[in-house]
Write a structure and sequence with these properties.
By secondary structure, the chain is α+β, with helices and mostly antiparallel strands. The protein has 3 domains: 1-180, Arp2/3 complex 21 kDa subunit ARPC3 (Orthogonal Bundle); 181-310, no CATH class; 320-466, 2-Layer Sandwich (Alpha-Beta Plaits), CATH 3.30.70. It contains 17 helices and 7 strands. The longest helix has 36 residues, at 275-310. The termini are far apart. The protein binds guanosine-5'-triphosphate. Residues 314, 346-352, 354, 359, 362-363, 366, 388-389, 456, 460 line the site of guanosine-5'-triphosphate (GTP). The site of guanosine-5'-triphosphate has 17 residues, from strand 1, helix 14 and helix 15.
């Protein structure tokens, strides 16, 4: 944690505290308690070192409040400010550290499971903070007995919204001030690397979301029916649209924007009697956003896996799996009188190259020789790496004789390679088979393999066709 991070965390805490006060629709009452998000994210990103700046910030604010209330300094204020600071810092410290442990040590669980855990931790930390905060309040003042029972739910929900909305924003900003890399955080923002930073479509979607918020607030202020406020849950739809199609950083910004408009709006449009509904809507919208973030991440992971299974990493050629699915498609869409063949080839005595010159030279032979054959192919032909030093070429629209001739042409194209100081003449044995009507590609490959074995038995560096 850099020194600037201590100052930043302290200032963020104080800043969000006063910002929340601006958005309060009654004294100490607003839809969200933003500093809670700063606290939990501070511990999440910086670990236990976040304790000092957060404790000091809460202490500072509590002390100033006590002074303002009672007009003048009283040493008891120091004690009550300390208690308030502990009542806030300890629950969020525990929550943040637990969340950090959960996200960094249980990376083997999928993102959705980790998000469930995160939501539970956030909810428990906010509940603990609400209960301890109110207990300290009851304890330090004489006139406030009973506020624990009355106030715990509203406090909890307000804190929880603050945590859910502000923590992701802090997780974007704070890691820049950390000396450590936080790889477990990257997965949440994996989407950002794939998508271009295009502000225009995002802003359009954000305008839709904000218009929905304002429209519903106006409706709620005009129509006295209490059910109107429930329309605010619709806001989760444009927010979900943003999460699924835009960068995670934009989705984070939109969640904050929606919340700010709602927090100001309940006061401006005087619909504070429905504030619990609005808080719930914000919580649900945030929770949906958290889950939805895992969908683009999963999609990206699937794409990577699909690419891995379709392209051979060494030669960059399609794999047998892709070969089979492509050839099956071509054969299926062919007329009955169309002939197609495959030529399977294996490099001769390749093991010797590996043994004598090393695996790296062997790899280079596989890479270069396959690239040369690939460059010789016609547009309709397809080369894939089957396994080890065995490759397969799809030869469409050729009967077995034409295909045998073509395989011989390709065999002659196998190069004499110059790798470092070595001169390596590359040879190969080919087995050719025609795709029979109604036969699976696996069966054709099996027959071509038999022909290839025959070519090896007959002395290598030749083509054998099987009918
Ligand atoms: N360098 C390298 N070697 C590989 C790779 N995959 C498999 N091999 C090696 O390729 C060799 C395959 O040898 P074979 O085709 O069975 O035997 P061969 O020496 O080519 O002899 P014939 O096929 O009978 O002519 C084995 O030694 C494998 O270890 C790879 O990705 N890179």
């Amino acid at each position: 944690m850099k020194t600037s991070a201590y100052v930043l965390l302290f200032l963020f805490w104080i800043g969000t505290f006063y910002a929340a006060n601006i958005m309060a629709f009654a004294e100490f009452i607003s839809l969200w308690y933003m500093p809670a998000g700063v606290s939990i994210a501070g511990f999440l990103i910086f670990g236990k070192r976040a304790f000092i700046p957060i404790f000091l910030a809460v202490f500072f604010v509590s002390f100033r409040f006590a002074e303002q209330f009672e007009q003048g300094f009283d040493p008891a204020h120091l004690a009550s400010a300390t208690l308030f600071a502990l009542a806030h810092t300890v629950p969020y410290g525990l929550g943040g550290l637990l969340a950090r442990h959960w996200l960094s040590h249980f990376a083997q669980h999928g993102l959705p499971q980790r998000i469930i855990g995160l939501l539970v931790i956030y909810a428990l930390a906010a509940l603990l903070a609400a209960l301890s905060g109110l207990m300290v309040w009851e304890f330090t003042t004489e006139t406030n007995s009973g506020i624990l029972e009355e106030g715990w739910f509203a406090w909890w929900l307000g804190d929880l919204v603050g945590v859910m909305v502000i923590a992701p924003l802090m997780c974007l900003i704070l890691p820049r001030f950390s000396r450590k890399r936080l790889p477990w955080l990257d997965e949440f923002y994996a989407h950002d690397r794939r998508l271009r930073a295009d502000l225009k479509p995002f802003l359009l979607k954000l305008i839709v979301a904000v218009s929905a918020v304002i429209g519903i607030l106006i409706l709620d202020s005009k129509i006295t029916h209490p059910g109107v406020a429930y329309f605010v849950f619709f806001v989760s739809i444009p927010q979900l649209w943003i999460v699924l199609t835009e960068r995670t950083s934009y989705a984070t910004a939109s969640l904050v924007t929606i919340t700010v408009f709602m927090a100001f709006g309940v006061g401006v449009f005087d619909v504070t009697d429905q504030s619990i509904t609005y808080q719930f809507a914000l919580y649900i919208t945030a929770a949906i956003s958290y889950f939805a973030v895992s969908i683009p991440a999963l999609m990206q992971r699937n794409n990577q896996l699909a690419e891995l299974s379709m392209l051979d990493l060494l030669t960059d050629l399609p794999t047998k799996w892709l070969f089979k699915s492509l050839v099956t498609q071509v054969v299926k869409s062919s007329r009955p009188n169309q002939n197609h063949c495959i030529a399977l080839y294996n490099l001769d005595n390749f093991k010797k190259i590996n043994d004598e010159y090393g695996q790296t030279t062997g790899d280079e032979v596989l890479r270069q020789s396959s690239q040369i054959i690939k460059n010789e192919l016609r547009d309709s032909e397809l080369l894939c790496r089957c396994e080890q030093d065995t490759f397969v070429v799809f030869l469409p629209n050729l009967d077995i004789e034409e295909a045998t001739k073509r395989a011989n042409e390709l065999r002659h194209k196998l190069p004499v390679l110059h790798i470092d100081d070595l001169i390596l003449p590359i040879r190969g044995s080919f087995g050719v088979a025609q795709v029979q009507f109604g036969e699976s590609i696996d069966k054709t490959v099996e027959r071509a393999t038999r022909a290839l074995q025959q070519a090896k038995l007959e002395g290598r560096n030749k083509v054998v066709a099987i009918s």
